[in-house]
Amino acid sequence: MQFAKETNIPVFLGERYSLYRLLRSVKNRFGSTDELGLLEMTEFGLQAVSNPSEMFLSENYFDSDILAGLALAIVVDGSRTFVIEIQALCVHGSSVARHVNGIQESRADMIISVLMKQAGLKLHENAIFLNVVSGFKLTETAGDLAVAAAICSSFLEVPIPHDVAFVGEIGLGGELRMVPRVEKRLIAAAKLGFKRCIVPKAAETLLSSLDSGITALGCRTLKDVINLVFSSK
């Protein structure tokens, strides 16, 4: 911040080896500070990203086992809504206990503990690796459900259908909790071609009248999510 003030040069957030940069407004005298600019380094210099969601989605191999361990979260940062990919890998008997990239470690620990205690997943002897694609830092709790779904997918070795996204906070009892701006999140997912979104049960009625081409599937607990997404596979 001191460098930016002294040189009048903007400072960007982003991974050192990534083409993408995040420009966040920390202080704005005439408007909102809750804004996020997304830019990509090209041969012509930094250019605005027209579709923010696409920069956070890796290449999908539809109908392939390689999709196991991948789940898509709909997140909001500033006025931007986009879909990001959460990756999980569960390895039985590994000497590495846990490695987390792009997710708050305390939040990841909580989600893993709830999956073991409330959903009955036997993760005790598994090393768990978590990663957010493209260097994005997941800070809001609306991504909890996608993190849990990615772990379940890898542990059960069952891919998640490519047209399904996730929105929801997870409580210590394994319950799914509401998050802000659910309607806006689903509209963004629909524009990218998603057909279904797993949401907290409380949001299902709220979204029933939303004419966006995407179906909101309400679940009360993590067990409900596991039964809905994985039991029919």
From TrEMBL:
Pfam families: ChlI (PF13541). GO terms for biological process: recombinational repair. It comes from the Eukaryota. PANTHER family: DNA REPAIR PROTEIN RADA, DNA REPAIR PROTEIN RADA-LIKE PROTEIN. This is DNA repair protein RadA. It comes from Vanilla planifolia (Vanilla). The lineage of its organism: Eukaryota, Viridiplantae, Streptophyta, Embryophyta, Tracheophyta.
